[in-house]
Amino acid sequence: MTSPDPAARFVALTEQKREMQAALNAVNEQLESAEADMLKDLDARNLDSVKTKDGWTVYARRELSVKTRDGADVVGNILVLGEPALLTANWQRLKSRVREWLTREDLGTWEIDESRLPPAVRAAFEIGEFRKLGARRS
């Protein structure tokens, strides 16, 4: 019994991976366009979700956007906050902290209200929101 040539097997799998990645990239481009169309449709119908005939629920969820302001002294502003741990944090941790500041106890959710943010955060970051689609079997 002879074992397959490891180099040939590796090359074959590499080619297969590249072909599959190219196909996935094409699907992702189409999905991006479909997502934009679906969000417009949900907005036009004033809905947050829809059920499909084949048992799926397509839903929109709010996402928080935190971006650095052009020319902002991000490091200096974070040090002013007295939270040096945010200097080594990733964006998810930073977004999580901003979400904590924006969360309204009376609503049980966050709302964009920059007056609730420390001045150093307002100076260093642009805060916004966007909607993103998800889908699950109902």
Quick overview:
This protein is an alpha+beta fold and 138 residues long.
Structural features, described:
By secondary structure, the chain is of the alpha+beta class. It has helices spanning 6-44, 74-81, 91-102, 119-124, and strands spanning 49-51, 56-68, 103-104, 109-110, 125-137. Strand 1 and strand 2 (56-68) form a beta hairpin. It is flat. The N and C termini lie far apart (50 Å).
Please describe the topology of this protein.
Blueprint: H1 6-44, E1 49-51, E2 56-68, H2 74-81, H3 91-102, E3 103-104, E4 109-110, H4 119-124, E5 125-137
**Oligomeric form of this entry?**
single chain
Given the C-alpha coordinates, what overall shape results?
flat
Largest sheet: 3 strands, antiparallel
Helix content: 40-55%
Low-confidence stretches: none
- Report the count of strand segments: 5
Structural class: alpha+beta
Q: Largest sheet, order of strands side by side?
A: 1-2-5
Helix and strand run? HEEHHEEHE
Averaged pLDDT, please? 88
Number of helices: 4
In percent terms, what proportion of residues is strand?
15-25%
Q: End-to-end distance, in Å?
A: 50 Å
Radius of gyration (Å): 22 Å
Annotation keywords:
4 helices, 5 strands, alpha+beta, flat, three-stranded antiparallel β-sheet
